[in-house]
UniProtKB/TrEMBL annotation:
This is TetR/AcrR family transcriptional regulator. SUPFAM superfamilies: Homeodomain-like (SSF46689), Tetracyclin repressor-like, C-terminal domain (SSF48498). Keywords: DNA-binding. Residues 37-56 bind DNA. Gene3D superfamilies: Homeodomain-like, Tetracycline Repressor, domain 2. InterPro entries: Homeodomain-like_sf, HTH-type_TetR-like_transc_reg, HTH_TetR, Tet_transcr_reg_TetR-rel_C_sf. It comes from Nocardia suismassiliense.
Length: 216
């Protein structure tokens, strides 16, 4: 008869795997993909290196698990931020949340967006980008349906925005400190690209961020 884990044993194993993923996330945020090792993760988690390998086949497998957990949270944040409002408000909120959160944890975001990784992790990165594109796609589609944005293919526009934003963030993420104008400029670019007439001197982006012209 094959051995079956009891619920208690499975819960303990799941908790251990979760602890390792959390430790790996911290190591990635500090050292990046190239600087991460299974031994470093084990030390951070307070377990033996062999225990890490019992839960994950190798570095790529572990980082894939990190991607799935972190991306799920990031996508949920973007979706929640852009769930209501006009097209301008939805798109602005999506850009601000996506880029703003990335800039708050630049090393980890650099790993998620552009750092050279193993093929299996790069495949997960494509899912990550697609998930964000779907959040933008929803905001664009609503805007088009309401006549707030000119007619366009929402999926194509969303994919283009995510790609452009990721490309812009490569510089700020790779070489801190980043300029404070990055997020407002990205919002202005996104709205312009979607066909929204920008307000003079970039004031539209500042309004979306709750900053008055007098404070700029």
């Amino acid at each position: 008869m094959a051995y079956r884990r009891t619920p208690a044993v499975q819960a303990r194993l799941d908790a251990q795997a979760g602890l390792i993923v959390q430790a790996a996330t911290k190591v990635l945020a500090e050292a990046g993909y190239a600087g991460m090792s299974m031994a470093a993760v084990a030390a951070e988690a307070g377990v033996a290196t062999g225990t890490v390998y019992k839960n994950f086949a190798g570095k790529a497998d572990l980082v894939t698990a990190v991607f799935r957990k972190v991306v799920a949270g990031e996508v949920a944040a973007v979706v929640a931020a852009s769930a209501t409002g006009t097209a301008v408000e939805r798109v602005s909120a999506a850009v601000e949340t996506f880029a703003g959160r990335a800039l708050k944890n630049p090393k980890l975001a650099y790993v998620l967006l552009v750092e050279p990784v193993d093929t299996v992790v790069d495949t997960e990165r494509l899912h990550f980008r697609r998930a964000f594109a779907e959040a933008f796609e929803s905001a664009v589609a609503v805007g088009v349906s309401r006549g707030e944005l000119p007619a366009q293919d929402a999926r194509t526009s969303a994919a283009a925005l995510v790609g452009a934003i990721g490309e812009v963030l490569v510089g700020p993420l790779a070489a801190a400190p980043h300029g404070e104008s990055v997020v407002p400029e990205l919002i202005t670019f996104a709205l312009r690209a979607l066909g929204v007439r920008a307000a003079p001197s970039g004031s539209l982006a500042r309004q979306e961020l709750g900053v008055s012209d007098a404070d700029a």
